[in-house]
Write a structure and sequence with these properties.
With 533 residues, this protein is α/β, with parallel strands linked by helices. The chain contains 16 helices and 20 strands. The strands form 5 sheets. Strands 1, 2, 3, 4, 5, 6, 17 and 18 form an 8-stranded mixed β-sheet that branches. The chain has a 5-stranded parallel β-sheet with strand order 7-16-8-9-12. A 3-stranded antiparallel β-sheet has the order 13-14-15, with no helix packed on it. Helix 5 links the parallel strand 8 and strand 9. Helix 9 (292-309) runs antiparallel to helix 10 (313-319). The two termini are 35 Å apart. Bound molecules: 3-acetylpyridine adenine dinucleotide. 3-acetylpyridine adenine dinucleotide binds next to helix 5. The site of 3-acetylpyridine adenine dinucleotide has 27 residues, from helix 5.
Length: 533
């Protein structure tokens, strides 16, 4: 659909965002016979995979799992080239999906949704975009968990003479760092993937690290055709098995607790997981995120690996994280720690000497000044709530979602929020989302929402809203589950701790299988916990 289009019309549903979630939501709702319009800010589809084009960007969930399963033909046909797909390959896949299911004709690109207001008289949403106004019975936020870029407000940034980049808003034409003095701020997943690549080009790379991350080697490689054939021979079985695992991904969880076995056995298990590579390291034992002493054994194993890889002991110690392993999201890398052995890479610890100002020719920390030609902000996202709250959303009695969530997001099942009828969130706060394999989580939400809308339409019903009581109980439950784990023990974006002033609330729900069971139960009981009219 061309960018000149004016947004007009009355639709059964409006979907905000054309990433994995928005594309599949459109497909399902159209299958139900609904009129649907998708609005997308980007000049192309793909969401996360449209924006995050930084060097080295790839998914750290394996390709055979980080893909749709709703179409057996699609999953049989599509050829992934590597164990972990690159950003361009994932974007190509989504482009293929959009074409294969003829989705583009209902997607309006380069169109930001500014507001969505619920009209009680008609039980419809009035939606204002940059290109006009539409109305819809249902409004679905497919806005993504990690899409609203977090840019720290360093004084002086407007006077910086060189170029600045955010990993989540990378220029489409790419960036040539040859001969440049580059500063990377941040050491989360995006930084850990891009730093080894930038270091190969830059004259000198300064990495400004506030908190070190634990990273496990990816051991990425071309996919073995025999393995692909084996998965494809029973793709549904593979998906089903993964859906029964805690993260909804193929990370086999050990039946043993870490301290149940002796130190040699623990070391053998960690070594095996390190050699296999990837996020499955976290499930080497079944209590790593539950018991601090157990977690210490895994953390120390990784710290020892860092000490073995990084030649300068002082640099190795600065790179060695002290927090609970997995408390901030575990990273997966290709050559990250070894990059600090390069003569053109300097690690700058800003944990006790923060960045104070950006200067015209570089930046200054409390301890020293650094001359830089360009700065890469690998500073993450206003996670889970940022993109939804960027829209002025108002529910019954004109209540603003921003006000309702001022002390932290409140949802029922991460799917709806009381007082905002006919508004659905895909992988919203209070759902497993970022603590699960996102694509199956998205599919589960899309299917639940589509089934719910079909159920309402079959009965001639026009309105569904979570009850405050069901929502309160769910918020308490999400917090109770989190409090049984070590997740709340460190500053992470799961808690909103990376954005100054954001309320400190643990947002994702831990446990994909029980969550799916709960959603199914709610639906089977005629949408228990929702008011329907
Ligand atoms: O962002 P992050 P990300 N001064 O928030 C630092 C997914 N993802 O884009 O930890 C100095 O993790 C901040 O420091 P600290 C994945 O879920 C997946 O890397 O707050 N530093 C941190 O080091 C991931 O978790 C993939 O102390 C500042 C960094 O910036 C999520 O996206 C790839 C600062 C931000 O790290 C986000 O990852 C990429 C300041 N003022 C991303 N402000 C894969 O699938 C922030 N920082 C592989």
């Amino acid at each position: 659909m061309s960018r000149q289009t004016q947004s007009t019309g009355d639709f059964d549903a409006v979907v905000v965002g054309a990433g994995f979630a928005g594309l599949y939501m459109l497909h399902r709702l159209r299958e139900l016979g609904l009129s649907v319009r998708v609005f997308e800010v980007g000049s192309g589809i793909g969401g996360t995979w449209f924006w995050n084009r930084y060097p080295g960007a790839r998914c750290d969930i394996e390709s055979l799992e980080y893909s749709y399963q709703f179409s057996e033909e699609l999953q049989q046909e599509w050829e992934w080239s590597e164990r972990y797909a690159t950003q361009p390959e994932i974007l190509r896949y989504l482009e293929h999906v959009a074409d294969r299911f003829d989705l583009r004709r209902d997607i309006e690109l380069e169109t930001r949704v500014l507001s969505a207001h619920f009209d009680e008289a008609t039980a419809r949403w009035a939606i204002e975009t940059e290109r006009g106004s539409v109305s819809a019975r249902f409004c679905v936020l497919a806005t993504g968990c990690l899409s609203s870029a977090n840019m720290p407000r360093f004084p002086g940034i407007e006077r910086f003479a060189g170029a600045t980049y955010h990993t989540g808003r990378w220029p489409h034409e790419g960036v040539d760092f040859t001969g440049q003095r580059v500063g990377v701020i941040g050491t989360g997943s995006s930084a850990i993937q891009s730093i080894p690549m930038i270091a190969e080009q830059a004259a000198h790379l300064f990495v400004f690290q506030r908190t070190p991350s634990y990273s496990i080697p990816a051991h990425n490689a071309p996919l073995d055709p025999g393995y692909v054939r084996q998965i494809r021979s029973d793709y549904a079985g593979f998906r089903k098995q993964n859906s029964q695992r805690p993260f909804g991904a193929n990370f086999p969880v050990s039946e043993r607790a870490a301290l149940e076995v002796d130190a040699d056995e623990r070391a053998r298990e960690y070594e095996a997981r390190w050699r296999r590579g990837g996020l499955g390291f976290m499930t080497a034992f079944n209590d790593l995120i539950l018991d601090r002493a157990a977690n210490d054994t895994a953390a120390e194993f990784v710290r020892d690996k860092i000490r073995a890889i990084v030649r300068d002991p002082a640099v190795a110690e600065t790179l060695a994280p002290k927090q609970v392993l997995g408390c901030k999201r575990l990273c997966v890398d290709t050559g990250y720690y070894a990059t600090f052995n390069r003569p053109n890479v300097t690690l700058v610890d800003v944990s006790d000497a923060p960045i104070e100002a950006i200067l015209p020719g570089g930046l200054r920390t409390r301890r020293a000044a650094y001359e830089l030609d360009c700065i890469v902000f690998a500073t993450g996202f206003d996670a889970m709530t940022g993109a939804a709250l960027a829209i002025d959303i108002r529910g019954t009695s004109g209540q603003a979602l921003r006000e309702k969530w001022a002390e932290g997001p409140r949802t029922y099942l991460g799917l709806g929020t009381a007082g905002f009828p006919n508004l659905f969130l895909i992988t919203g706060p209070g759902s497993p989302s970022v603590l699960s394999n996102m694509v199956p989580s998205i599919e589960q939400h899309v299917e639940w929402i589509a089934d719910c809308i079909a159920w309402l339409r079959e009965r001639g019903l026009e309105r569904i809203d979570a009850t405050p009581a069901a929502e309160d109980a769910w918020v308490v439950h999400v917090n109770e589950v989190a409090s049984l784990t070590l997740y709340p023990s460190c500053n992470s974006w799961y808690l909103g701790a990376n954005v100054p002033g954001k309320p400190r609330v643990f947002m994702p729900y831990l446990g994909f299988p029980p969550y799916v069971e709960k959603c199914n139960e709610v639906a089977a009981r005629d949408y228990e916990g929702f008011t329907i009219g």
